[in-house]
Design a protein that fits this description.
Length: about 150
């Protein structure tokens, strides 16, 4: 345990130590998981990078913020701002969400066609990937539950 005069390592020191260790042992975070997955006859699928342009929550919040920002007046108080925010959130419709989802799918499909798309390129399109999505995400527990509930033949 560290006393008052003796401090533990800083966050920066811990990050540097972790980076040095991983640099010296690259097999820790790449080769072993890939080999385990390969041995089980599975393939790793890496999703597109996280970005605000494909985050529906962020897009709807930006929509709401834009409406509230256009209503800014110098004398607005917190209660008025909260009321304007609630009113703006009420303007988020199912149609707007569907439009943004289509936008996200288009962006992901374009990403899939780039070099950065990596293993996602094998699906060719977002539509093909979505057709396979249930099979890609189903777990053994899901299969067991489906059998117990009579969903399988």
């Amino acid at each position: 345990m560290f006393g008052a005069r003796q401090a533990g390592p800083t966050l920066v020191q811990l990050e540097q130590a972790a980076k040095q260790h991983l640099a010296a042992h690259p097999e820790i975070h790449t080769k072993v998981p890939r080999q385990l997955v390969s041995d089980a006859d599975y393939a790793l699928l890496y999703p597109p990078p996280t970005c605000a342009i494909c985050n529906l929550h962020e897009m709807m919040w930006a929509f709401t913020q834009a409406i509230v920002a256009r209503q800014t007046i110098r004398t607005r108080n917190a209660q008025a701002c909260a009321a304007q925010t609630r009113e703006a959130m009420d303007r988020v419709s199912a149609e707007l969400c569907q439009k943004q989802i289509r936008h996200c799918h288009t962006w992901i499909e374009r990403f899939m066609q780039t070099e950065g798309g990596g293993c996602l390129q094998q699906f060719g399109s977002m539509a093909a990937l979505l057709l396979l999505a249930p099979a890609l995400t189903q777990t053994e527990d899901d299969e067991d539950n489906a059998e117990q509930e009579g969903w399988t033949q």
